[in-house]
UniProtKB/TrEMBL annotation:
HAMAP family noted in UniProt: FtsQ_subfam
UniProt name for this protein: Cell division protein FtsQ
InterPro entries: Cell_div_FtsQ/DivIB_C, FtsQ, FtsQ_C_sf, POTRA, POTRA_FtsQ_type
GO annotation, cellular component aspect: membrane
GO biological process: cell septum assembly
Compositionally biased spans, kind Polar residues: 21-32
Source organism of the structure: mine drainage metagenome
Subcellular location: Membrane
Keyword Cell wall biogenesis/degradation: no
Keywords noted in UniProt: Cell cycle, Cell division, Cell inner membrane, Cell membrane, Membrane, Transmembrane, Transmembrane helix
Transmembrane segments: 53-74
Gene: ftsQ
Region annotation Disordered: where it falls in the sequence: 1-32
Length: 279
């Protein structure tokens, strides 16, 4: 209840004090009613949003439960990789080595690292490319592409049909190529082209050398050597091939000799090197 502004005290100062005191009390009472405290504001906000908080908590519990459940399921022994299916037309690759390498793969149907497994399998001799696929629920399919040798390469390696060098043990008969490491595809194309040109003559390339300066040298299956030089002239090459049967028949170009085709208007022939006693 507000204090009256009228006072019977003759002291005007006291009268004004009562009036002022009444006004201050009324102002404080109105301020308390109009401005709620901090806890009151919190209770009001929670009361308006509690359903949303409950929904968020339930969703978090659900997600956590699903995650734990999935982790438990995918790590059951039932999903561990237990079988390997090997596919591919294999002649040089040992399937037993592929199986052993696949058995060392870590993980299960869901967690197996196919990239790491493929890298492990590619270390097996004669394997060029490996493709892995999961087979439900606990097996792997290993598709192996084998290296197909096209020529011996340099002193130790082989060259596959794509012109890619690789290292493996091989005892079969193949032409021998030698040249810069990056020249494998170019030399393989040249080998095929030379063989097509020589086929009508009953000859084939036994060896092909490309020097660092780009000069070509052919070794034929009869032991003769043909020096073509750099950027052999196609027209001159075709003229020589047409003349070769008669020249060979007349003994102008003996087997095992050396033919130098680097001249613009002809060629030279050297007979085979005589075998000395020291040989």
């Amino acid at each position: 209840m507000a204090v009256s502004g009228i006072s019977w005290d003759k002291n005007s100062g006291t009268k004004r004090e009562l009036r002022n005191s009444g006004r201050q009390g009324s102002s404080q009472r109105h301020s308390t009613l109009e401005t709620p405290g901090f806890l009151g504001r919190v209770r009001s906000w929670v009361g308006a949003h509690w359903r949303g908080w409950v929904a968020v908590c339930l969703l978090l519990f659900f997600i956590a439960g699903v995650k734990v459940g999935l982790h438990w399921v995918i790590h059951r022994p039932f999903f561990q990789i237990q079988h390997t299916v090997i596919r591919g037309n294999l002649h040089q690759v040992d399937p037993a080595l592929v199986t052993k390498a696949a058995q060392r793969v870590q993980g299960d149907f869901f967690t197996v690292d196919l990239g790491a497994a493929a890298a492990e399998l590619k270390t097996i001799p004669w394997v060029r490319v490996v493709h892995l696929h999961r087979i439900w629920p606990n097996a792997l399919e290993v598709q192996v592409e084998e290296q197909i040798p096209a020529a011996y390469w340099g002193d130790e390696g082989l060259l596959n049909i794509f012109g890619e060098p690789f290292v493996a043990d091989y005892l079969g008969e193949l032409p021998h190529l030698s040249g810069p490491r990056e020249a494998g595809p170019e030399m393989l194309q040249a080998l095929n082209r030379f063989n097509r040109d020589l086929e009508p003559l009953g000859r084939s390339v036994a060896g092909l050398v490309l020097s660092e300066r780009g000069a070509w040298t052919l070794t034929l299956d009869d032991g003769s050597h043909w020096l073509l030089g750099r950027e052999p002239d196609a027209a001159r090459w075709q003229r020589f091939l047409k003349a070769w049967p008669e020249l060979h028949q007349n003994g102008v170009i003996p087997a095992g000799g050396t033919v130098d085709l680097r001249y613009a208007n002809g060629f030279t022939v050297r007979g085979p090197r005589p075998v000395s006693k020291e040989d």
